Amino acid sequence: MKKIGVFTSGGDAPGMNACIRAIVRAAVYHGIEVYGIHRGYKGMIKGEIYKMDSHTVSNIIQKGGTILRSARSKDFVTPEGRKQAYEQLQKHGIEGLVCIGGDGTFTGANIFYEEFGIPIVGAPGTIDNDLYGTDYTIGYDTAVNTALDAIDKIRDTADSHDRVFFIEVMGRDSGYIAIPCAIGGGAEIVMIPEAETSIENVVDALRTGWNRSKTSFIVIVAEGDEAGNASQVAAKVQEELPHMDARVTILGHVQRGGAPTAADRMLASQLGIACVEGLLKGEKCVMAGIINGELVYTPFIETITKDKLINPHYLNMVNILSV
Ligand code: F6P
């Protein structure tokens, strides 16, 4: 293999730049030409493909976002779109791909490999940490620390005003961001899609705390929770507890930006090298991940179809720590 392409796709995540840097430098180290594909699958279809070298990735390891830009492509979902993308790669003589993204990215990569046989190795880049085949995804640690920083600040004002705050964190259908935010942020309650928490439970827990003379509370609501979003949960709880002063904060896309933490820079660098070396060793349709400190390549199909379960003990910890 002499020429490879690299792209980021789906929601950006802090550490993607560190991973791009590692991929480019590992390619240069192994004597391979590397091309940056801008705006994910969308740019691949349009032919937004540019040669990269060691210098093009200087001074980016500490930056949030992705220098390659990202997008969610509707056209790549169609066979015609994928054919156009393949033709663009052929035009540039690209023989292998490294993608950085989440389940949408890997779903696309899996179909693309099946249709055209071009080897693709992926690095897990999403703040959601919802991919099977790695303990942590690139961007997750930074997103959790960004959210925690905000939660600490909200706690100050919650305490000053005797209020209950319903704080919504990202994670799509997963509670991986919510759990460390709740434990690390000293929340009274956490609501995640993986476990049912009824409004009655929330009301009971707040009432019990109130009767024990607690006057301020933090409730962390994962955006995908089945009981509703933070505003909906707050409205339902407020109906039952009208004497409590409730406020809602949606942390939103602030969780996606910012300089990556040391842990994310390390993970991104390790996995970036692993992607290039995986391609060179003949890996074809897999994601590189780290499980218990060991590098593991997991077929894309497993990363997107298998569940990465949350340890139920974490939920219990929130209960124990909020007594
Ligand atoms: O997958 C990352 C993520 O930030 C999710 O947590 C969130 O549900 C989604 O992307 C938001 O996507 P968008 O930026 O397209 O609104």
Structure commentary:
The protein has 323 residues and is an alpha/beta fold. It folds into 2 domains: 183 residues, 3-Layer(aba) Sandwich (Rossmann fold); 116 residues, Phosphofructokinase domain (Rossmann fold, 3-Layer(aba) Sandwich). The chain is 42% helix and 19% strand. The chain has 11 helices and 11 strands. The strands form 2 sheets. It has a 7-stranded mixed β-sheet, with helices on both faces. It has a 4-stranded parallel β-sheet with strand order 7-8-6-9, with helices on both faces. A hairpin with a 2-residue loop joins β10 and β11. It is elongated, with a radius of gyration of 22 Å. The chain binds 6-O-phosphono-beta-D-fructofuranose. The site of 6-O-phosphono-beta-D-fructofuranose has 10 residues, from loops. One of its GO terms (biological process) is fructose 6-phosphate metabolic process. This is ATP-dependent 6-phosphofructokinase. Its EC number is 2.7.1.11.
